[in-house]
Design a protein that fits this description.
This protein has about 400 residues and is mainly α. About 50% of the residues lie in helices and about 10% in strands. The two termini are about 35 Å apart. InterPro entries: DUF1688 (IPR012469).
Amino acid sequence: MADALERQARSLLTATAVRARAGQMLELGLAGGLNHFTIDLDRMDGVAEAVLAVTRKAYPTLDIPFHARWRHFVLGGADRWARLADAATWPDRAARARAEFDLAIVSVLLDAGAGAAWRYRDAVTGQGIGRSEGLAIASLDMFASGLFSGNERAPLRADADVLAKLPLAALTSAFQVSDANPLLGLEGRTDLLRRLGKLMAERAEVFGLHDTPRPGGLFDHIAAQANDGAIPAPAILAAVLNQLGPIWPSRLELAGIPLGDCWRHPAIKADDATAGLVPLHKLSQWLSYSLIEPLQRAGFQVTDIDGLTGLAEYRNGGLFVDHEVLRLRDPADATRAHAVDSRLVVEWRALTVALLDRLAALVRAKLGRTPETLPLASILEGGTWAAGRAIAFARRPDGAPPLKVISDGTVF
């Protein structure tokens, strides 16, 4: 029985489960069976056109990279990580990949909603940068300064023992947080990095195969699973979820296994103990997308990229609300703040994942592309995230999402 329960729990730690449960939520919504949203698929073509418009503007040749943290390290056309990495001396490609895993993992874990008020003052341009882009540049500056490294002569790394003891004051200062420049969920972000550090120290057999324990050790763990140099993208997510799962704050567990970004909704059916559970794994999938390029640079072929799903976050979700594909049954819900585990937010996020798959099919049809030539990861980048942000700023001066979610800095 325990083994069966564990298998059921681990089945939720997959993109397949995310896609299946999101699809079930969409079918419920289309049948009028959800408490908080109605769905108007007739408006999807307009969403596809909006996505194409921002995509063509950003990528006129339609040569679109993946939606990944690396895009946010490019500011004013300058790729700041590439500049740092290319100037550094690496003993081999794996060493650079470990550093890139260090950076991506730390930066993504710091990348939850910043709130509308926060800005990071970039020392190079003097520009005040908000939201995800500001968090990215701030985290890159921290990484470059050696804030996460235990070796003064090797700043471009993150070490488990340093992360485990990371002072809140260090992140407060590095993020330039003050009463006048508040950052949502700072304590949650700090705690997440500390948990990461402690976990890696405990799992040295995973994170310390070729070095002292560090996030970059996950590169070696994943690389060891390659078959003829190929690694399926869902295997990256499986490694992220199974190896990093315990760092998430106490949420749902099944058979003692933390389920991460997984929430309850009574309408979701299954014939086992996973009934009523809705996995989304937004940050973990965002991280998985961000680990593809370091693996590719290290010489691996990453396959089945569309095996991952769209990201259940507020830009993608806001895209469908602002374009009125998703309509609130109670308009007053737009003025209220909602907990992450509320049924409204769970519905919104799951519907977002399912609608992104449908939107991707529409975008590809308009461009005459296939999933192989235009993966979902590129549509997200082109794409849905930017279109969601564009309409948010068109509708609301501060660019806030159409729904208010109470964030603890560890979801989105």
